[in-house]
Amino acid sequence: MSDENAITVDIYDQTYHLNGNDREYIERLAATVDAKMRAVASKGRTVDSLRVAVLAALNLADELARLEERYAAVTSAGDTVASIRSRAHSLNGMLDEVLGQERKAG
Fold first, then answer.
1. What is the model's pLDDT at position 76?
2. Reported pTM
3. Can you give the residue ranges of every domain in the chain?
4. What CA–CA distance (Å, rounded) separates 64 from 94?
């Protein structure tokens, strides 16, 4: 591991030496995992760090799945919004055409 990319983080009282280019991002990820593990440990009776890690991973996977569902809903709604905008633009063009014809006739 190159020293310039070495990042040391603590997760659930364990030190990990990681390699990466974005120190702040990796530290933020480590802090998220640490917080999730501590939250899981505070709600349960287990002191086994492996079980805490697995339960934390399941919680994080659940959050990810829910966010993916929300993203899919928003992006499909975005298609609907784009469709509505396109239709509105088309109708606006037709209205301008009709009003222009009435002005010429009137």
1. 78
2. 0.67
3. 3-105
4. 45
Residue 55's contacts (CB-CB under 8 Å, 6 or more residues apart) are 40, 44, 46
The better pLDDT of the pair 85, 77 is held by 85
State the Cα torsion 51-52-55-56 to the nearest 10°.
-150
In three-state secondary structure terms, 18 is: strand
Beta strand pairing call for 6-11 and 14-19: antiparallel
- The answer to whether residues 33 and 14 touch, using CB atoms and an 8 Å cutoff, is no
What six digits make up the tokens of 53?
């890690």
C-beta separation of 30 from 12 below 8 A: no
Tell me the three state secondary structure of residue 27. Answer: helix
Which structure tokens are listed for 35?
A: 């917080």
Q: How is residue 26 written in tokens?
A: 């990796």
Q: Beta-carbon neighbour count of residue 55 at 10 Å?
A: 18
On the question of pLDDT at 33 being above 80, the answer is yes
Distance between CA atoms of residues 14 and 9, nearest Å:
8
